[in-house]
């Protein structure tokens, strides 16, 4: 699934990575608990989360996660944007709830990690 | 042989992950296998968050040679009264602040254990905790 498709499906905003709209990912994982994210062996997935702080970006950095999608209309800080740019992480944001977001992405073919 | 040290400040969540990030950059420059790098940095990051969340600050000592990386996280207390219990998945003494950061669910130490080849935890209540972890590059 391309970033451009995700944006369309969720009416999402691209916060970081406007030049990566063709970047494609197959797998998604949704969690607000970063320790659970850090147990994943799968890489280059999209992390769907409502946890919006520096630790979300750091977790993605350590776990080689390439795309973060914030749900529930979270506001991304300048610090987070800077960290994401440093680590080539794409950041998206949408207004939908976590449930609605994962439902739509699943329906459109995004595959769960497990 | 390479030696680096990082200072960890109590409650400094804004900078949690900085040391792990630096370690990741160094290992990448040395062309260490990506899977190994991930194991190391996930373990160090969990430990770094622990030191910031639970301890009164501390120091991370990193020793690196061709065969392995050894990371020692030494904090200034308060110490862990029951290490066996702290190693159990789901056991946590984390504050609300730590949970807000996306941690504190009792997964940190089990996560560390799963990612390293050797783990040694020494702790004295009122004095501090020392967590030593080793990952071999060729195993």
Query: Judging by the overall fold, what is the CATH architecture of chain A?
Result: 3-Layer(aba) Sandwich
| Shape field of chain B | globular
Number of strands of chain A: 6
Mean pLDDT, all residues of chain B: 94
CATH superfamily of chain A: HprK N-terminal domain-like
* Rg on CA atoms of chain A, Å: 12 Å
Helical/strand content category of chain A: alpha/beta
- Biggest beta-sheet profile of chain B: 5 strands, antiparallel
Strand content of chain B: 25-35%
H-E order of chain B: EHHEEHHHEE
Structure characteristics:
heterodimer, A: 114 residues, alpha/beta, Udp-n-acetylmuramoylalanyl-d-glutamate--2,6- Diaminopimelate Ligase, Chain: A, domain 1, six-stranded mixed beta sheet, globular, B: 139 residues, Heat Shock Protein 90, five-stranded antiparallel beta sheet, 5 helices, 36% helix
Describe the protein in words.
The complex is a heterodimer of chains A (114) and B (139). By secondary structure, chain A is an alpha/beta fold. Chain A has helices at residues 3-10, 34-37, 54-62, 78-86, 98-107; strands at residues 13-16, 27-30, 46-49, 67-70, 90-93, 111-112. Chain A has five helices and six strands, in the order αββαβαβαβαβ. Chain A has a six-stranded mixed sheet with strand order 1-5-4-3-2-6, with helices on both faces. In chain B, strand 4 (118-124) and strand 5 (128-136) form a beta hairpin. In chain B, helix 2 (34-54) runs antiparallel to helix 5 (108-115). Chain B has a five-stranded antiparallel sheet with strand order 1-2-3-5-4, covered by helices on one side.
